[in-house]
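Supplementary Text 2. Reproducibility record for the structural model of the 535-residue chain.

All settings were left at their defaults, and a single model was retained for analysis rather than an ensemble. We include the record here because the model underlies the residue-level annotations in Supplementary Table 4.
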Amino acid sequence: MNLLRKITSSNFFNLELFSFILFIIVHIVLFNFNSAEWGDSYRILRASEFIRDGSYPSDEKRPPLFSAVLALRPFSLDAVIWGRMVLFIFSTLSFLLFYKLVKTYVKKEKYRFFALILFIFNPVYLYWSIRIMADVPFSFFVLLFFYIVAKWDDLNFFKISLLGFVCGLSILTRFEGYLLLGSGIILLLFQKEDLFKDKIKIKNILSVFFRNFKKVIPLLLTTLLVISPWLLYRNPLKSKYFDEAEKRVYDLKMVWTYLTSLIYVLGFTSAMSFIIIKFRIVKDFLLKNIGIFSFILFEFVLILLWPAAIPRLFVPLIPFFILILVMSVESYISDIGLNLTPPRIIFIISILLTFFYLISQYYLKLQFLVLGYKMLAVIFLVQIISLIFLFTRKNTAYLIVIVLSTVLWSFYAINMHRHIFKTITEASKYASDNLTGKIAYNDISAIPDWYLNVSNSKSENSGIHMLFEDNVNLKFNKLKDEEVDYLILSNEHNPNVSVNLEKRKYLQLIKEFSYNVNGTVFFAKIIRFNQDYIE
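Retained model, structure tokens:
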């Protein structure tokens, strides 16, 4: 351990520069690691193509800014490659902003380095930083907003207007930008007011509100100025997101999933124990940074309303979780050196959290919290080893092992999902490149639509969506009425899809793509429809 301390000392080399180089290497290695993108990624890419033609799809619920950035794609460059390049840029900028925030709040270099490593290998943040989705770009604007607040303690009209500009861009990136605006309003009203010194009184809150409300005006006006073209184009109160919340099932299992994802989102099981033990540190930080506090609370409520998007919705919160955790760890280790905190308490809490993780995964089987008994056993063993070091006060060894946990956790999650939608993507590409005519597909991921209708250069080629599960749309007369030439039959979105081609002589299998993903065989079959078939 003495050798490790010497190697990682600032006298040997710059730890923060090393972390940046490591970040770049990790993202270059993972750049084309995924076989395909998520279905929603292709809807975002589709919207970017509409923007290039001077319009925006009426059936697209997402705000336009991320698609507008993707629309800047050079004509000769593949859209998916360009999308990954844009994510690489946003991820790098987010890393740099996180470093700036860490440098503001964490004074010791070794703990700043620890925070940066946890950021690089966080299982959720890393996963979504290599996917063409708007979560990391949104996180960039959130980090930029709070970095401006931290950098400029005295906010004048210009600085507040700049915050409004950032809020506007965040709203145009994701719907959650309205939550950032709300936290910005609370920040300007109450950031420097000591409301928690004595008992909170409504009279005092109202007094502070009216005294500081003038600060909010430039924030609101600038934000409105930025988003007004989008508001004129589309009413946010009619968003399809509100309809989705009505369809959610809210029960004890959902709450269990929510809490489990929150507790273990950092990639090791003992993280929450430090926050519990050092709650005073956490409380002081949040009360001094009321904007961050309110944003976290708003996001907690939102994620509870949209539990199906767990853990992706945690992405903009993860940098603040890491920051809070590292400050708690630093305070704990400092107290250990002064014999102020017995390790027994945190050890007991960590043991309970570790076994709660194991029990939760046994019943919930959450994809991002490690599936598969073999890997789950490895992760559990790593946690136990880390707890032994924690109990014996081998602090450096403990930190190394929990970093190892995040690395294993991250690459397992990434590798587990790398071939998601591979079969339907390959089938759609093949159909686009080799077939001519009208192609019906049952996949709902937007991937066939992208390759057959949006990115494909063949004017003779077109795709339509048809449901095949009930077999009604597979009847000869129905296919002939729709003038279908080919079908792409996939089980990517429904593994139980099964069609007996032997009973339908007018359907001929011409090519099949299949792949085993986590024990499930997914397929995409290209089928020719013989319109001239006679019984």
